[in-house]
Design a protein that fits this description.
The chain has a six-stranded mixed beta sheet. It has a three-stranded mixed beta sheet with strand order 3-17-20. It has a three-stranded antiparallel beta sheet with strand order 5-9-8. The relative contact order is 0.22. Helix 1 packs across helix 5. Helices cover 28% and strands 33% of the residues. It is built from seven helices and 21 strands. The chain has helices at 13-21, 29-32, 47-54, 91-99, 102-131, 170-185, 199-211; strands at 3-5, 8-10, 37-40, 45-46, 59-62, 77-78, 83-89, 135-142, 145-152, 157-164, 193-197, 222-225, 228-232, 237-240, 246-249, 256-261, 267-271, 285-290, 297-303, 305-308, 314-320. The chain has two domains: 3-153 and 283-303, putative capsid protein of prophage fold (Super Roll), CATH 3.15.30; 157-263 and 312-320, 2-Layer Sandwich (capsid protein of prophage fold). The protein has 322 residues and is an alpha+beta fold. The protein is elongated, with a radius of gyration of 22 Å.
Length: 322
Amino acid sequence: MAKYFNGTLSIKSEDIERVVAAQPENISNARGYFKQVKLKNSTHIASAELKREYGNIPVIVRGDTGVTPKHGADVTDIVPMPIEIDDKISAVDIDELGRATDLGTNQIVDSYLEQHADMVRNTVNALCCQAHKGSIDYMMKSGSGFERYQVNYGTVKSVSFTGKISQLTLGLAVQNLSAIKQLTVDQGVGGPGEFVACAAFYAKMIDLLAAANKTESVKDGWLQIGPYKVLEDNDSYVDTAKNGTKTTKGICGAREVVYRALNAGQKLCYLRLDDVVQKAAVPIYSFTEKESGQRGIKLYTKSKPFPLVNVKGLAYGTFAAE
């Protein structure tokens, strides 16, 4: 339970755990791909481990002047970039803390931590989205500003179709989906898998299933297209380019469908933060600091997520423009 005494606010791990547990279910299909979550009690990941699991090593750039490790045995470690949120408890809330009961203190603290937890979740979802394309290029929250975070996992195979989505039949759709999946099979990745489709493809499939009286193939949140499970891309995040241009994106582009093998070794890692007293890896960590020389309390939240993907288990198909 959060405690406030003599101008100092202390937050314990159970405070952030309580807030995270109360969050609504994360329905992101991008995040849902990473069923396995690993807490790694290290600030870095050994490249030998990634080379053994995935056959390649992600290349990471931190900021515009960051160092880019080279592929190969000379790279011993990679260090993912943390999410860092710097906040300040308002003067009004500090006055309230001075009069609040323990329950009231928790409510004030929770209002801040809820915002931070949402920011971390949204960032993790965006990183998982971008990882589906084989790379991350994201403006990450870092302190009071933003820093460019770039990761290159390798090349995701893709195929372009000459036909338009509007011209699809169920039979042709199955052929196209099979062609996309085959790109992963050809690279040695088999087993179960699923598709995530852009809104236009998904809507066209619903129309075709309805016309064929196959309403039983319209499931709760997905479609059965022949032998394949197809999800609709339900992710949305704002990507800020280096020049400041903002673009809303998801897993898929406007005419895209992605196939993802479910047993390709993908996982979401949370690494230990290297500049806090918390010595064990946790998904999210918050702490406070009393400002010196002025009346105020700083509230910090940090997280070091790193989605790992096997690009051989991912493939894209793009349809012709309408």
